[in-house]
Amino acid sequence: MENKKIIIALTGQFAAGKDATKKYLTEKYGAQSVKFSQILRDVLKRLCVEISRDNLIDLSTILRERFGQDLLAKVIASDASGLDADIVVVDGVRRLEDVSYLSKLPNFKLIRIDADSKIRYERMKIRNENVGDAEKTYEDFMKDHERETEITIPEVMSKADFALNNDGTFEDLYQQVEELLLKMKS
Questions:
Q1: What are the DSSP calls for 105-123, one per residue?
Q2: What does the longest C-alpha to C-alpha distance in the chain come to?
Q3: Where are the domains of the chain?
Q4: How far apart are CA 175 and CA 169, in angstroms?
Q5: CATH architecture type of domain 6-179
Q6: Residue 1 pLDDT > 50, yes or no?
Q7: With contact defined as beta carbons under 8 Å apart, do 36 and 95 qualify?
Q8: Dihedral class, residue 48 (left if φ above 0, else alpha if ψ from -120 to 50, else beta)
Q9: How far apart are CA 36 and CA 54, in angstroms?
Q10: How does pLDDT run across 19-41, given as a tens digit for each residue?
Q11: What is the average per-residue pLDDT within 70-97?
């Protein structure tokens, strides 16, 4: 029997709209998802260590240096393959090693999500996902793009099979997602 599962991997700079895209696919199509940072958040929580951007970055760096640059991609690929859904969303692809490993999965598509930096900054503050996000200045936000976990994202984005622009409304984004799904199915 033909494998109909589509693996949609999302890449983009933080607060570009990966979560909004994932949420839409989950709610409308019953997609299931896996998120790179969730592995790290789970470890930090279990260790009773504050879940901050700095701690996420440090843990990621330590694990990848010790166990291989594609360590997290291997876990994500295993998790994604084991999910029973027609659409699986992989959130937060940041490295070429991730793309290289995940692209071996059947029906894998890498989607880049772009959004203006000022729009992303406002979203990040409102979302306040990590400790200290709400208090960040725009300058601090832009400096975060120079961090080890962020500098490879533009190169990963350049490898995308499809692109979405999230400078507009949720409805604009959702329309692009619908068009994208049609392209994938044809």
A1: STTEEEEEEE--HHHHHHH
A2: 53
A3: 6-179
A4: 10
A5: 3-Layer(aba) Sandwich (3.40)
A6: no
A7: no
A8: left
A9: 15
A10: 999 999 999 999 999 999 899 99
A11: 94
